[in-house]
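Reader question, answered in our methods column.
A reader sent in the components of a multi-part assembly and asked whether the whole thing could be modeled at once rather than chain by chain. We filled in our standard form and ran it. Here is what they sent:
COMPLEX SIZE: two components
ENTRIES:
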Amino acid sequence: MAAPCSDTCEAKERSLRERVPPLLTDLYQFTMAYAYWRSGRHQEPAVFELFFRDNPFGGGFSLFAGLEDCLLFLRSFHFTDEDVEFLRSVLPPNTDPAFFQFLRGLDCSGVTIRSVPEGTVVFARVPLLEVAGPLAVVQLLETSLLCLVNYASLVCSNAARFRLAAGPRRKLLELGLRRAQGPDGGLTASRYTHMGGFDLTSNVQAGFLFGIPVAGTMAHSYVTSFNSLEEVWPQTLAAVDGDRDPVDFVSLTKGWLTHVCELLGAESGKIREGELAAFLSYAIAYPQNFLPVIDSYSVGCSGLLNFCAVALALCELGYRPVGVRLDSGDLCRQSLDVRGVFRLCSEHFSVPAFNSLIIVGTNNISEQSMIELNKKENEIDVVGVGTHLVTCTKQPSLGCVYKLVEVRGRPRMKISEDPQKSTVPGRKAVYRLLDAEGEDQSVAHLRSQKRRCYMLQGLVTHPQSSAAQTREKVQSSLQTLHPRYKRLQEPESYTVSVNEIQNNLSKTQTPFTSCGLLCQQVALSERLHHLVTELQRGSSIDSNFLLAN
Amino acid sequence: MAAPCSDTCEAKERSLRERVPPLLTDLYQFTMAYAYWRSGRHQEPAVFELFFRDNPFGGGFSLFAGLEDCLLFLRSFHFTDEDVEFLRSVLPPNTDPAFFQFLRGLDCSGVTIRSVPEGTVVFARVPLLEVAGPLAVVQLLETSLLCLVNYASLVCSNAARFRLAAGPRRKLLELGLRRAQGPDGGLTASRYTHMGGFDLTSNVQAGFLFGIPVAGTMAHSYVTSFNSLEEVWPQTLAAVDGDRDPVDFVSLTKGWLTHVCELLGAESGKIREGELAAFLSYAIAYPQNFLPVIDSYSVGCSGLLNFCAVALALCELGYRPVGVRLDSGDLCRQSLDVRGVFRLCSEHFSVPAFNSLIIVGTNNISEQSMIELNKKENEIDVVGVGTHLVTCTKQPSLGCVYKLVEVRGRPRMKISEDPQKSTVPGRKAVYRLLDAEGEDQSVAHLRSQKRRCYMLQGLVTHPQSSAAQTREKVQSSLQTLHPRYKRLQEPESYTVSVNEIQNNLSKTQTPFTSCGLLCQQVALSERLHHLVTELQRGSSIDSNFLLAN
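And here is the structure of the entire assembly that came back:
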């Protein structure tokens, strides 16, 4: 049943199987499966659609993510003896034992998946994933598929918004693992924020499983763990070319510190010895990767001076220090001060390497503070984002749903008294109405937003894209979207056209009708509108079933 | 190294190992560990404290959760060859190869954990977990421990607030898996919302791993998948006593439906045949567990009538129908209408079972709507809560931090220019100042909130409580807290007293000083206040280190 799969793919599949066992679902999936099985309906062909009802974060779009995980989950979907025994203990005692044998033999060999490609721009009410297969099986998949798409799409969309707020050039680093909603919340966040536009993650497991570039140097605890220069060991460092004997790096740095204090008119009495010891130890361990956090005590009175001294000593030995991290206070103002000192040192001490030092800023960055940061003058090269990115504080859930649209070829519909909870019946084709740039809206150019078949009768039919490809896809997909829909606040709402799947493209040029039951951004084709009306009228043809007996 | 562990415990430990591999951490833990190792400091005894800075949800308290997972994680903490090979590929190329051998041999045999018990009421700035051990090891544990405590405590506290809002009697059902932040977000939520006061979960895996009672019957898709009574099979059902031959259950129900329509003056033309077929099929499959969702079309015109008919037919055969679920609209008003119909049926048809039918309400319940629901007249017996509970929409992250407080017996402190980010140095004892009820605050009764040793040099020393025990602990711990601190809105802030750990209880009766650096709810003992001032003044003694050379 498995398509060819590389080593990395196997590690991902194993990790997913461990994190998403088939019992990680709602109990009612099993009670319903039993009722279908009991009445002999479990093999009836059925179709579910997965979609969300509103674009997240008050925005004008979302990104679709989680497809690859869904396919991995479906490939290995089956219940073990242990699973089935547990189900036996929680389902009502009169459940027919043969049902558990049926469960034990179940897999997704009858399941076909059509989907929007991973990383595509999507909109509210658009069917993202279409799941077709035996009624009992596709019902059983509901919770797992929702769980895999909901958060992945949400956090990917959130990352895209942070990317839009930050502009295309600044490097973005995700570091939310410790604040995520559970361990896998952290792993999922690292993966899909990278897809949504982040460059780096602090999460090692995300690097291991998904090949995302990882970054990080030191925390405040490292700095505060040092107390005096006596703790620095070894105290020597060899020059990068290795030609000379190792020099006394502590003395070399102390000399530079005196020069730096003179240059900046700083009081040496306020410099923290423990901080200098920490920087020295780190630089001696990793002379090519020196990027300390400089605000454990005071940036201006201690951290920046200590950094410059160690970095100048490294330069003297031929190494290139990398930069600094600021983790508190007014990042913009501090970055300007820090850059000024770097320029001064570069000029005064003739050290060109000081012109390419980078400044990393991390301090509880939200979408709003990213927007503000981008407006203000600053010298921050890399922004690290944690809590607000990974937990999506602005809206922590996307609210995807999974609705039955067809059984045995007949369209199905939920007609709730709550209009928001009603569904559009039948399988659908979805189109985005794209304007040719500069043309009038009324001569809108029609282009299809294709859903492709990704799994046919349990076989994965479409090669998966790499993380880098999908990441690129996100940015190119966002490129096709007009800025008015991408505005982070009060975007225009995008009109999605929904048509029955049997129609070909030309049919979509028939007028679209806005359906009172649904949100206004969805335009239904005329035939689909008729179908909705007919199903709403209900079992009019069959309404005599009571008297018929 | 492992203490005795039952089967369930093993399943939990395995699950945790799979969900929280040791690479699920920030890269800088490894770069710091290397720098410590390189300078020979990796074995120095160090102490970290884990705490949060503000009570979540604008509330007056939090609950501490995640301890058991932390202990399971620590018991099995080690790096595989594969892990180490990956680390070799991401750490700088000049990393000494012997460091990777050191990592390969690492475990938590030198780690000691003192902690507040799982499920205890706690407050901002209180050290919840104290982690003591070799500097490099306890540093490496940071991200994993934070990740395990942060969300567990947050979602447990959220559940406790929902429980306070709902009152003690109403049953609460968690059903957030599909909307959670990733699969494990869902699993963690099910576990800790149960601990925080929920009775049931829909999540089967949570039942499997943690023994939480699971519940669920059917979704709308089940109802809408049926179209006509012809799909009902088998059409017969035997009476509960099994004495008679199976009867034609469809005809029996149709008869009852006619009676119900007559009684209520309802139009039979508006009744959905598919919905009746769905209810019949379910009742025939699970006659003892009949609890359908009745708003797939219209509660008043169809769902309620169909339910009553099937339930009356079940009663005639000696079964006890369970109740109904409402999933949209005004739950309070509908529950009153539904209860009225149940009473009428009970009386008119002399069916006492109709007096004990339960009404389940599920419709995007938030803390606010739970408060409102509790104020309004209603007949809802069980409330199902999903999105707002598990994703903690009001505040999706707790913001726990892990700070170094001691190295080689010397207190350490971070003195940021941002006062909120400064820490209280040294190991601490924490006390809650409890009033004797009715007495004046000035004669406050002092009682210690004990932290216990849970792991000594890598060995688990304290037997874990069962889920039920911890759940009870939460409620009894909340009982000790005065209502003014438990108010969901604008609670009073609780004063926490922090003392150096060397002092005995009597010493805490020395005056407490409020420290400008910290939030005002924390009162420091006089000696601790001196220590803070001294460390803030900094390396005054050592400040000549520059000139000393």
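What stands out: Chain B has 20 helices and 21 strands. Chain B touches chain A through 142 residues (CB under 8 Å).
Send us your own complexes using the same form.
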